[in-house]
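Please, structure for the following, as tokens.
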Amino acid sequence: MQLRPLLRAVPLILFGCATLTAQHWPQYRGPAASGLDAAVALPTTWNAEKGENVRWSTPIPGLAHAAPIVWGDRVFVATAVAEGAAPDLRVGLYGDIKAAPNTEKNQWRLLALDRATGKVLWNTLAHEAVPRVARHTKATHCNSTPATDGRRVVAIFGSEGLFCFNATDGALVWKKDLGPMDSGYFQVKTAQWGFASSPIIHDGKVVVLCDVQQGSFLATFDLETGREVWRTARSDVPTWSTPAIIESAGRKQIAVNGWHHTGGYDFATGKELWKLDGGGDIPVPTPIAAHGLIYFTSAHGRSRPMRAIRPDATGDITPDNADWKHPAIAWNHDRRGNYMQTPIVVGDLLYGCADTGLVTCFDAKTGEVRYSEKLSPTSEGYTASPVSDGRHLYFTSELGNVFVVPVGDKFAVAATNPLGETCLSTPAIADGTLFFRTRSKLIAIGAAR
């Protein structure tokens, strides 16, 4: 099956709600990591067990949290298949920092599925080895979501490297060894947790953020050849955040989350534009942009801020006061942020969800809190980030329960839909369909046609 050439141009979404055609969800959290596709209404109820509003369900081998991506008629998903017995995955809310056993040989694979039927079109083996770095008991050896421009698909398979594939037939085009990607707890460096930052594609370049124990960097690579364009060293603790491209104030920057070095870098050269010290010491969520602001959140340690930064910031904007006042900081809440989930902006509202299921709704422009409510009275744990069709928000618990919340400044749960399996991957949206990657399947949820 050939990809339609007319579907190969993806516009950059800047400071507003995503309006991208319903054909594409090209990276982690979709266009510009917005998590939003308002083109077609999504179903609010389904029954995975009975097949109601389930278009298809396809088994996916291996263990991975890499989210699905969509381009035209295809869905792409990455996975790591262990030799021997399937590895355990421990979900829920717990504080155990130990790494999982790391002795089995793995196969890292990229699969393409037909979007309409779920049929596997190709299944490419990219690499086979014993993983160079261990994973957390809740993580996998394939956490990073691929990215595509319709011609190429790029994937980071942790310490195994950066790989580029032909989107049509899955052939490996090039690969780069990025070194051991040792992402673990900075206070206990033997507690390896696995790499999770995802690549993004923009203007013919692959952007990669590698915040690890030693040798951290931000870099861009030529999409066609894999040639390194530039590399900028970073000095921070390990992070698990995906970078974001922001265009504003006459400049194009790469925004990155961090603890000691949240900041922006010039897209063309890698030169640091601004930086900010402070926040949660285990940064995971991806920056998002709307309303002329860039939103950052992080958690763990003394602080879990939710904050809005002006994109024309320059230099070190770390405040020298206790109330976090600085001209480049539009607003800040020290204890309202998220640990695992990337927030989402729909209209004038910003929504964040903590790993406990506490949803906080903010006025995106002013930071005013509109509500802060729990999705469920039960303790489930939440890792997957929310997505929206502009009408409802979809929050997925680690147990695979999807809570549907109406968009607005009044909290309610319109429906709760079980997927039937654990789920830690962020869903994709395309043409009125939700694509959920559960423990063993890829499930397409859409209203009957």
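The first strand starts at residue 24 and ends at 25. The chain has a mean pLDDT of 93.
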